[in-house]
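Team,

Forwarding the record for the chain on the shared tracking sheet. I've put the sequence and predicted structure together so nobody has to dig through attachments.
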Amino acid sequence: MNYQKYTWYNREAVLDNPETIHQVMSLGELDEIRAMEHEIGIEKIRQAYLQYPKKIYSRPVFLLINKYILNNQEPIDERKYLKNTSGNIR
């Protein structure tokens, strides 16, 4: 899998780095996400996703990743993941 295309800004990127995992999860195709899962394991991906949130996801991608790929059953603060969140208007 060529994950470097998602981490073009970091020539030293490695696949099990949380930054790289988030980039592939957010921008990658399903077959690339599955290849990453096969290479480093779903638990490593889940751990990086939950312990090191990144505000880079669109809502549809966030829901796909959270509910269907990671099968996360616990409540999660979407504001830590969504790049476009509405703020409180007073």
